[in-house]
Structures are given as structure tokens and as C-alpha cells.
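Work Package 4 report. The design task specified in the project plan requires that, given a folded chain encoded as C-alpha cells, an amino acid be chosen for each position. We show below one input record used in the internal validation round.
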């Protein structure tokens, strides 16, 4: 079943709508006084228009709280848009009538033109110029910070002058986790950076397991353009960038990851020891607050611009992209297990994008790796990444028992779960040894439950942790392994048009390695 369609796309706050409605109420009273005092026919239309606006903004408040109901949306849209047109038309007709009268059209005499007629003559022209500059790409006013809501991007495209971007956009039906994500390729105007933003021209992007999770609705509401493992170069600077950081230059190579910006002041951000910025309560993310990397262009706030130092110039873009989310997620998760070289670590979901990189990083750090996945087809791949043993969860032999047998009955010192299956988490308890660490990485639907008993943790001294992506410093640390060729992402090339098929394969656990798409 498709998820309900949201008719209300641009959601103002209720207080703002209330203030506007109040202003229109004051205007209503003034207009009523004008009707009584002047008795001019034009004020009747003004009264009608203002009444429509008041009802329209009341409907807007209702529509904002009930986005899937079509009635309030149509009512607010109609009543808010039509009154200005009505008032402008009536007043303009009246102004023309008055101009004819003053020019001698009725009695043959010439009168001085009243001041407000100049306003009525000029205002519509200024309004048209303003709207043109706001809604058309490359305009001057957009450089001052005026922006078009995302829903309007691509509504008008001048093929000769507008820069284009190709994107994959997840339809609203994909927000329900049982639905199949659908994508389409579009051409849109190139985004224009705000004063504190940088425009990036992406060269390529890789596919991450989180993209599937977002497309299926497992990670809350998302935007239309997904993707968060992109590499590109600075294409344009916002108006304030040169003053804020003159070292940022057009042409610099940068990475686009899951986090686009943080507040820097919340309790999470200030907890530097625990790398709390990855859990900033006001963080802005790719594919949520900002369009993702399944596009040729995207915007990044200066504060969280992830510049790739020149020391990594020898690493190609296609090997950097997978590290920006999947790689750094695996690296940080294993690092935070606090293991000693030579100890056993289980990577559950080892044949996936994050899991395989986890195997590679764990092996490079000196740990003994047991790879766990479903089916015999991934054994060779996992061992090529550094796994010492492979456990097939579908072999018919209990996976927990296999791990215990491989570790002389002790169990692993850590189990890192990257598989997006509840069974993987449940079975992890059978693989842990005394004082072991269960590291939670993969994201499951909110309604999925894992069963455990407190005595398991009390008797075994287990620790449960969660790990979320990595900081900018973590990314540079993870890239050092690639530079030294200790970790080499296994790359497979695809086209952006292949997104839908790749998502379907990923949902079935059939993808091997990291898929990279040129843009």
C-alpha cells in the first residue's frame, strides 16, 4: 500500500499563520471603516478579498496539521492565492478609470494625476520583476538569499540558460517500509548557494545501505533526492564565504557525507571525548535538510565542508566515496569496540557494503575476523576482504554454535551487526564471549523488537553500544588505511538509471561490494 500523499508541501508555523491572520483582521476593520466612510464600490471587492484571505489562512493552519487531507489544502491554496489577484485587478481597473478621467477623457479638461495612481501603475511591474528574479535560476535576488521551495525546482526550465542536474527522486510511496522504492530521472535548475553555502559539482556517488533504509521509510521523513557518499569539487561560493574562510577556493576536492551541518553547541556536540557531533540534536543531513548526492550538484554549509587534503590526491574519487559513510561507519564501529590485536570479532552482514568494509578494517587493525552472512555465495568475497572464517547463517547449523566452535568455545570479544535483519541482532547474543561488546550499526524498522533478559548482561558482563557514521576526523583516519592500501574498497560501476534495480538487489542481500555511479 502506498503511503498517504502529503498535499501540503510548504509548512509554515502556526504562530506565523496566526500573526498573518491577525494582520488581515486589522485590515478588515480598516476596510469596513472605509466602506462606511467612503462608500466606494472598490472597497466592496477589498472586503471580499480580505475575508477570503482570513478564511484561507485559517485553512492553512488546518492544512499544515493535516497534510494528507485534500480539502483543507485546496481551500487554503485557493483562498490565499485568488484574493491578491482580485484586489490587484479591481484596483488597477479603477486606477485606469481615474487616469482617463484626469486626462480629460470625460469632460475634456486635464487634471493633475493623483499620487496613488503612480503607485498602482508601478507596483504590478515591480512585482513581476521580483517574482521573475526569485523563481528563475541565476537571478540577482537569489544571490541575496531568496530561495525557491524545493517543490518548485524544475517547474520552469530554460534549456538554454539553466544549468541542469540529473537526480534520482524517491516517490512518496517509498516512505512505507513495505513499499518498493521508485525513482525517476529529472533535469532541474542548478542550485544557487546561500551566503554561507558552497555549491559542489559532484563527479560520482556511491550507494549506501542507508539509502535503502531512507527510501523504505526506516529513517523518518526524507527529501526527494537521496544519496550521501559523493565526491566532487567546489563549483561556486556563497557571498560570505570569501570573508569567512578565504582558503576555500573553486576547484577544491571535497566529500559529501551523511552529516551536512551541526549546531556545535548542544550537549552532544560539546562532548568531544565521545565524538558527540555525529549525534547533534540539531544536525542537518543529506537527503533530509539538503538534497542528496544522487545529483550533479548539491549545497553544503561552509561550517561542515569536508575538504579532502592534498595528501590524498593519489586516491581516486571512486575509492574515497565509499569511505565517506559506509567506510567510516565500519571503521568507527570497530575502533569503538576497544579490542586488542589478536582478539576475535564477528562481522554480521559481512557480505554487504558496510560489512565488507568492516571485515577489511578489522583485519587491517590486527583482529581475527569471523564473517557471518546468509548463503555460501559470499564466502569467497568475505575472505578476500580479510575474514579468517565464514559462517553461513543458512547452512542449517546454528550460527552461534559455529562461532563458539571457531573460538574454542569462548565466543567473540565483539559482534558488529551491520545486517538489516532482526535475526542478526538476536543471534549476536549467542556469539558473544565473556565481557564482549555488541556493536549496533544497522537500522531496523521501529516496530521490530529484539528479545533479551537482563541476566544475560549481568552474568556475562556484556556491553551494548551503538555507532553512527563518523566525524570529519574519523573520515581522514579511515582514508589513511586506503592510502596505505591496507583497505581497498571493492568497486563496481553503475549508472544513475540503475538505482531502482540496485535498491531491489540490496533489499534481497544480493549486492556485493560498493556500487559507484558517475554523474
Amino acid at each position: 500500500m502506498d503511503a498517504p500523499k502529503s498535499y501540503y508541501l510548504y509548512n509554515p508555523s502556526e504562530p506565523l499563520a496566526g500573526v498573518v491572520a491577525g494582520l488581515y483582521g486589522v485590515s478588515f476593520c480598516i476596510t469596513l471603516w472605509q466602506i462606511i466612510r467612503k462608500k466606494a464600490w472598490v472597497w466592496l471587492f477589498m472586503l471580499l478579498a480580505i475575508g477570503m484571505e482570513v478564511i484561507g489562512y485559517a485553512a492553512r493552519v488546518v492544512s499544515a496539521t493535516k497534510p494528507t487531507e485534500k480539502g483543507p489544502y485546496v481551500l487554503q491554496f485557493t483562498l490565499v492565492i485568488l484574493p491578491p489577484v482580485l484586489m490587484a485587478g479591481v484596483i488597477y481597473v479603477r486606477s485606469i478609470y481615474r487616469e482617463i478621467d484626469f486626462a480629460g477623457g470625460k469632460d475634456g479638461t486635464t487634471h493633475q494625476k493623483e499620487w496613488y495612481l503612480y503607485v498602482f501603475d508601478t507596483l504590478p511591474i515591480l512585482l513581476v520583476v521580483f517574482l521573475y528574479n526569485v523563481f528563475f535560476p541565476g537571478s540577482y535576488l537569489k544571490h541575496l538569499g531568496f530561495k525557491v521551495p524545493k517543490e518548485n525546482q524544475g517547474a520552469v526550465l530554460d534549456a538554454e540558460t539553466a544549468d541542469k542536474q540529473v537526480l534520482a527522486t524517491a516517490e512518496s510511496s517509498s516512505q512505507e517500509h513495505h513499499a518498493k522504492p521508485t525513482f525517476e530521472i529529472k533535469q532541474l535548475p542548478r542550485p544557487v548557494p546561500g551566503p554561507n553555502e558552497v555549491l559542489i559539482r559532484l563527479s560520482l556517488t556511491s550507494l549506501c545501505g542507508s539509502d535503502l533504509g531512507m527510501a523504505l521509510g526506516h529513517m523518518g521523513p526524507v527529501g526527494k533526492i537521496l544519496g550521501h557518499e559523493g565526491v566532487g569539487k567546489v563549483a561556486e561560493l556563497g557571498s560570505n564565504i570569501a570573508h569567512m574562510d578565504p582558503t576555500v577556493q573553486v576547484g577544491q576536492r571535497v566529500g559529501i557525507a551523511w552529516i551536512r551541518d551541526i549546531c556545535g553547541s548542544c550537549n552532544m556536540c560539546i562532548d568531544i571525548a565521545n565524538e558527540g557531533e555525529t549525534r547533534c540534536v540539531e544536525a542537518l543531513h543529506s537527503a533530509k535538510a539538503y538534497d542528496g548526492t544522487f545529483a550533479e550538484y548539491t549545497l553544503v554549509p561552509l561550517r561542515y565542508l569536508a575538504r579532502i587534503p592534498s595528501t590524498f590526491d593519489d586516491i581516486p574519487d571512486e575509492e574515497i566515496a565509499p569511505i565517506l559513510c559506509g567506510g567510516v561507519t565500519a571503521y568507527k564501529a570497530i575502533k569503538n569496540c576497544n579490542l586488542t590485536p589478536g582478539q576475535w570479532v564477528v562481522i554480521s552482514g559481512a557480505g554487504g557494503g558496510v560489512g565488507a568494509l568492516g571485515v577489511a578494517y578489522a583485519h587491517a587493525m590486527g583482529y581475527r575476523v569471523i564473517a557471518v552472512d546468509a548463503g555460501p555465495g559470499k564466502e569467497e568475497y568475505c575472505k578476500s576482504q580479510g575474514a579468517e572464517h565464514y559462517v553461513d547463517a543458512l547452512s542449517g547449523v546454528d550460527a552461534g554454535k559455529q562461532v563458539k566452535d571457531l573460538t574454542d568455545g569462548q565466543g567473540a570479544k565483539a559482534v558488529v551487526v551491520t545486517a538489516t535483519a532482526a535475526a542478526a541482532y538476536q543471534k549476536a547474543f549467542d556469539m558473544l564471549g565473556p565481557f564482549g561488546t555488541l556493536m549496533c550499526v544497522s537500522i531496523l524498522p521501529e516496530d521490530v523488537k529484539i528479545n533479551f533478559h537482563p541476566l544475560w548482561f549481568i552474568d556475562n558482563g556484556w556491553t551494548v553500544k551503538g555507532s553512527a557514521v563518523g566525524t570529519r576526523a574519523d573520515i581522514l583516519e579511515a582514508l589513511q588505511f586506503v592510502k596505505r592500501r591496507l583497505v581497498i574498497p571493492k568497486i563496481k560501476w553503475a549508472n544513475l538509471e540503475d538505482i531502482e534495480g540496485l535498491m531491489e538487489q540490496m533489499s534481497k542481500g544480493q549486492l556485493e561490494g560498493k556500487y559507484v555511479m558517475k554523474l
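The longest strand covers residues 197-206. Validation will be extended to a larger panel in the next phase.
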